Amino acid sequence: MSAVAINRKRSEESLYSNQPSTAQFRRHSPYFQAPKKKRRFSLAIMSQDSNNKPSSSSTSRMARYPDAKTPLRREIHAPSRASLIYGGRGSVIKIKPNDCCEKGKFFTREYDNAKRTALDACRFLNKDKEFIDLGDEPEEEEEEAVSQDSIIEVIDCDEEEKKNIQTPSSSDVIVNNFGVGDTSRMLDSLSLSREETADASSLEAYRKLMQSAERRNSKLEALGFEILFNEKRLSQLRESRPKPLEKPLKKVPHEPFIPLTEEEETEVYRAFSGRNRKKVLVTHESSNIDITGEVLQCLTPSAWLNDEVINVYLELLKERETREPKNYLKCHFFNTFFYKKLLSDSGYNFKAVRRWTTQRKLGYALIDCDMIFVPIHRGVHWTLAVINNRDRKFLYLDSLNGVDSKILNALAKYLGDEAKEKSGKDIDVSSWEMEFVEGIPQQQNGYDCGMFMLKYIDFFSRGLGLCFSQEHMQYFRLRTAKEILKLRAD
């Protein structure tokens, strides 16, 4: 193995000895590494000691191989690749005297290569005048830009060596500084020139548009004047228009919503207790109706009202009117059995209720009342019919927004018979209006219909609008129970 190494080193030395100019330049290169100092071996047989033995086993083995002969000199036919050493702006281009005889021919060829590279870059231009920036290409591509046959070497020089080197000519500067950045600037100039030519045609079209717009300026000014004139005229008309009168807000009356005291609430809840179910709590003497704890239970939440509670409350409303006639309308309140007698299964029957409204029993004529209230029970639902003598109307109120013309027709016929029977007057009820009242407070459950009916009667007898809703039903139940226990409607 050692013999092979010796032959390789000798071949390198002989190669460099045949090319003195190349070896001289390689010594100046920082990438050049000087060969190690040669180790000389004596090929002669080492001296032997007194016992005729070799002094070293390795030496004896080396002596077996013959001396390496100097290899034959061969010419290198392949072109040598240029060694590029980038030294920045301080780098200097040196030309090998063996390859380029004339310095001008070399720079001319390099200038032509750079020019051809710039022209080839024009292929990357597209219709939108975009170009590919070649400034970010890797260094490998930059190296490929240099011709494979180039024999220039760029080396770093000290300050003293720079002084000795001749200043490059203008052509040298062009070759040294021409690069990819110059190519991009060249492409920029090409794209700008194309844009200028395109803008020339667009500028002409823009000029034509401006000329056509100027012809319409007079017409636009006239239209603008008309718009301003009409706006001022419209503002004057709005100012001269009379302002609508603001309707005063209806004040919610205080009397129908007087809260209960703690003592009154305690008394009501005591009456609702189970130990008073069989006990007669109050008795209304004029109507001879007893109110027990069990009867009063219908005023608890989620319960249906019964006939006893409704009839007693209507009697209390009549007594309230008699007590304070100036604060309430003159009304008559039929009980829950009147309509069942008037319109039974056999049909309309005036004789069944003829004695219910005698002068001696009532103390007044029915046709002299402002309003006549008729509670109607329809199986599981309470509704209200009203004979409004003051406005000459027949009204029907249903908390579920229902209608029934049969009820109003029966009451119209009854009013004519009643007037003729008691006063001897003929009333033409055909001219009266029959109205199914809409927009009234509606129940939101299936058990407050009786309470809604009583409050329709209460608010109409006061001469008030129906200004309550479902959320007041809990309070109205407690208040109605309190008034029945005291036998006095407030």
Fraction of residues in H or I helices: 40-55%
Order of helices and strands: HHHEHHEHHHHHEEHHEHEEHEEEHEHH
Our count of domains comes out at 3
Shape type: elongated
| Poorly predicted segments | 1-32, 36-56, 80-98, 129-178, 190-197
Assign the CATH class of the largest domain.
Alpha Beta
Radius of gyration: 63 Å
What is the CA–CA distance across the termini?
Answer: 133 Å
Number of helices: 17
The CATH superfamily name of the largest domain is Adenoviral Proteinase, Chain A
- The spatial strand order of the largest sheet comes to 5-8-9-10-11
Secondary-structure content class: alpha+beta
Name the CATH architecture of the largest domain.
3-Layer(aba) Sandwich
What does this structure look like?
The chain is of the alpha+beta class. It has three domains: 2-62, no CATH class; 96-191, no CATH class; 263-486, Adenoviral Proteinase, Chain A (Adenoviral Proteinase, Chain, 3-Layer(aba) Sandwich). It has helices at residues 2-18, 20-28, 57-62, 103-120, 139-145, 159-164, 170-177, 180-215, 217-240, 262-271, 293-296, 307-323, 338-342, 359-362, 405-422, 449-461, 473-486; strands at residues 92-95, 152-155, 280-284, 289-292, 331-333, 343-344, 347-348, 371-377, 382-388, 393-397, 433-436. The chain has a five-stranded mixed sheet with strand order 5-8-9-10-11, sandwiched between helices. Strands 1-2 form a two-stranded antiparallel sheet. Strand 9 and strand 10 (393-397) form a beta hairpin. Helix 4 runs parallel beside helix 7, helix 10 crosses helix 17 and helix 12 (307-323) packs parallel to helix 16. It is elongated, with a radius of gyration of 63 Å. The protein starts with a helix and ends with a helix. Mean pLDDT is 74; it is low at 1-32, 36-56, 80-98, 129-178 and 190-197.
